[in-house]
Amino acid sequence: MARKSKHDVADLIHSASIHVLRRAAEKDSETGLTRARLSALSVVVFGGPLTLGALADAEAVRPATMTNIVTALERDGLVRRKPNAADGRSVLIEATAAGIRAMQRGRARRIDAIAERLDDLGPDELALVWRAGELLEERFGVRPWRPLER
Length: 150
Known about the structure:
The protein is mainly alpha-helical and 150 residues long. It has a domain at 20-119: Winged helix-like DNA-binding domain superfamily/Winged helix DNA-binding domain (Arc Repressor Mutant, subunit A, Orthogonal Bundle), CATH 1.10.10. Helices cover 62% and strands 8% of the residues. A three-stranded antiparallel sheet has the order 1-3-2. Helix 1 crosses helix 5 (97-117). The radius of gyration is 18 Å and the shape is elongated. The N and C termini lie far apart (39 Å).
Protein backbone atom coordinates (compact mmCIF):
# COMPACT_ATOMS: atom_id res chain seq x y z
CA MET A 1 0.00 0.00 0.00
CA ALA A 2 1.29 3.46 -0.90
CA ARG A 3 2.11 5.76 1.97
CA LYS A 4 -0.84 8.03 2.79
CA SER A 5 -0.69 11.61 3.97
CA LYS A 6 -2.41 12.73 7.15
CA HIS A 7 -4.95 14.54 4.95
CA ASP A 8 -5.69 11.33 3.02
CA VAL A 9 -6.25 9.54 6.34
CA ALA A 10 -8.38 12.40 7.67
CA ASP A 11 -10.51 12.32 4.50
CA LEU A 12 -11.06 8.56 4.87
CA ILE A 13 -11.94 8.88 8.57
CA HIS A 14 -14.33 11.72 7.78
CA SER A 15 -16.12 9.71 5.10
CA ALA A 16 -16.22 6.49 7.11
CA SER A 17 -17.49 8.30 10.21
CA ILE A 18 -20.38 9.82 8.30
CA HIS A 19 -21.40 6.44 6.90
CA VAL A 20 -21.06 4.63 10.25
CA LEU A 21 -23.15 7.25 12.04
CA ARG A 22 -25.80 7.27 9.32
CA ARG A 23 -26.20 3.50 9.61
CA ALA A 24 -26.36 3.72 13.39
CA ALA A 25 -28.84 6.62 13.27
CA GLU A 26 -31.27 4.48 11.29
CA LYS A 27 -32.13 2.91 14.66
CA ASP A 28 -32.88 6.25 16.34
CA SER A 29 -36.47 6.34 15.13
CA GLU A 30 -37.15 3.40 17.45
CA THR A 31 -36.72 5.72 20.45
CA GLY A 32 -39.83 7.68 19.50
CA LEU A 33 -37.91 10.94 19.95
CA THR A 34 -37.03 13.55 17.37
CA ARG A 35 -33.34 13.94 16.51
CA ALA A 36 -33.22 17.22 18.42
CA ARG A 37 -34.73 15.70 21.57
CA LEU A 38 -32.55 12.61 21.34
CA SER A 39 -29.42 14.73 20.90
CA ALA A 40 -30.29 16.99 23.84
CA LEU A 41 -31.09 13.97 26.01
CA SER A 42 -27.71 12.47 25.13
CA VAL A 43 -25.92 15.65 26.24
CA VAL A 44 -27.84 15.66 29.52
CA VAL A 45 -27.29 11.94 30.19
CA PHE A 46 -23.59 11.94 29.39
CA GLY A 47 -22.68 15.50 30.39
CA GLY A 48 -25.30 16.72 32.81
CA PRO A 49 -26.72 18.06 34.90
CA LEU A 50 -26.31 21.41 33.20
CA THR A 51 -28.05 24.73 32.79
CA LEU A 52 -30.45 25.35 29.96
CA GLY A 53 -27.98 27.87 28.50
CA ALA A 54 -25.13 25.36 28.57
CA LEU A 55 -27.35 22.77 26.93
CA ALA A 56 -28.40 25.25 24.25
CA ASP A 57 -24.73 26.09 23.63
CA ALA A 58 -23.81 22.41 23.40
CA GLU A 59 -26.54 21.84 20.84
CA ALA A 60 -25.89 25.12 18.99
CA VAL A 61 -29.49 26.33 19.30
CA ARG A 62 -31.13 29.38 20.81
CA PRO A 63 -32.20 29.14 24.47
CA ALA A 64 -35.85 29.49 23.42
CA THR A 65 -35.52 26.49 21.13
CA MET A 66 -33.87 24.48 23.91
CA THR A 67 -36.63 25.47 26.32
CA ASN A 68 -39.16 23.83 23.98
CA ILE A 69 -37.01 20.70 23.65
CA VAL A 70 -36.50 20.41 27.42
CA THR A 71 -40.20 20.99 28.07
CA ALA A 72 -41.05 18.08 25.76
CA LEU A 73 -38.42 15.83 27.37
CA GLU A 74 -39.70 16.81 30.79
CA ARG A 75 -43.28 16.04 29.74
CA ASP A 76 -42.08 12.58 28.63
CA GLY A 77 -40.44 12.02 32.02
CA LEU A 78 -36.91 11.85 30.56
CA VAL A 79 -35.43 14.95 32.24
CA ARG A 80 -36.28 17.15 35.20
CA ARG A 81 -35.40 20.65 36.27
CA LYS A 82 -33.84 21.17 39.68
CA PRO A 83 -32.63 24.30 41.50
CA ASN A 84 -29.05 25.27 40.77
CA ALA A 85 -27.35 25.42 44.18
CA ALA A 86 -24.48 27.45 42.68
CA ASP A 87 -26.80 30.07 41.14
CA GLY A 88 -30.28 30.52 42.56
CA ARG A 89 -31.39 32.38 39.42
CA SER A 90 -31.09 29.29 37.20
CA VAL A 91 -32.07 25.65 37.13
CA LEU A 92 -30.17 22.56 36.13
CA ILE A 93 -31.48 20.02 33.67
CA GLU A 94 -30.79 16.43 34.71
CA ALA A 95 -31.78 13.07 33.28
CA THR A 96 -34.30 10.92 35.09
CA ALA A 97 -33.86 7.18 35.49
CA ALA A 98 -36.26 6.77 32.54
CA GLY A 99 -34.14 9.16 30.45
CA ILE A 100 -30.97 7.23 31.25
CA ARG A 101 -32.65 3.93 30.35
CA ALA A 102 -33.97 5.39 27.08
CA MET A 103 -30.48 6.58 26.17
CA GLN A 104 -28.93 3.23 27.09
CA ARG A 105 -31.47 1.37 24.93
CA GLY A 106 -30.90 3.77 22.04
CA ARG A 107 -27.13 3.42 22.34
CA ALA A 108 -27.43 -0.37 22.46
CA ARG A 109 -29.49 -0.36 19.23
CA ARG A 110 -26.87 1.83 17.51
CA ILE A 111 -24.04 -0.42 18.72
CA ASP A 112 -25.90 -3.51 17.55
CA ALA A 113 -26.38 -1.94 14.10
CA ILE A 114 -22.66 -1.23 13.84
CA ALA A 115 -21.69 -4.65 15.23
CA GLU A 116 -23.78 -6.34 12.53
CA ARG A 117 -21.53 -4.68 9.93
CA LEU A 118 -18.49 -6.24 11.62
CA ASP A 119 -19.85 -9.81 11.60
CA ASP A 120 -17.54 -11.07 8.87
CA LEU A 121 -14.30 -9.65 10.31
CA GLY A 122 -11.80 -12.06 11.80
CA PRO A 123 -10.00 -11.58 15.11
CA ASP A 124 -7.00 -9.81 13.53
CA GLU A 125 -9.22 -7.38 11.64
CA LEU A 126 -11.32 -6.69 14.75
CA ALA A 127 -8.12 -6.03 16.71
CA LEU A 128 -6.99 -3.61 14.00
CA VAL A 129 -10.33 -1.74 14.05
CA TRP A 130 -10.15 -1.69 17.87
CA ARG A 131 -6.68 -0.13 17.76
CA ALA A 132 -7.84 2.46 15.24
CA GLY A 133 -10.72 3.32 17.58
CA GLU A 134 -8.30 3.68 20.49
CA LEU A 135 -6.12 6.05 18.49
CA LEU A 136 -9.13 8.15 17.49
CA GLU A 137 -10.37 8.29 21.09
CA GLU A 138 -6.93 9.36 22.30
CA ARG A 139 -6.99 12.29 19.91
CA PHE A 140 -10.66 13.27 19.87
CA GLY A 141 -12.34 11.72 22.90
CA VAL A 142 -13.63 14.12 25.50
CA ARG A 143 -13.51 11.47 28.19
CA PRO A 144 -12.22 7.91 28.31
CA TRP A 145 -14.35 5.43 26.43
CA ARG A 146 -16.40 3.09 28.57
CA PRO A 147 -18.41 0.15 27.34
CA LEU A 148 -22.17 0.15 27.30
CA GLU A 149 -23.61 -1.44 30.42
CA ARG A 150 -26.05 -4.09 29.28
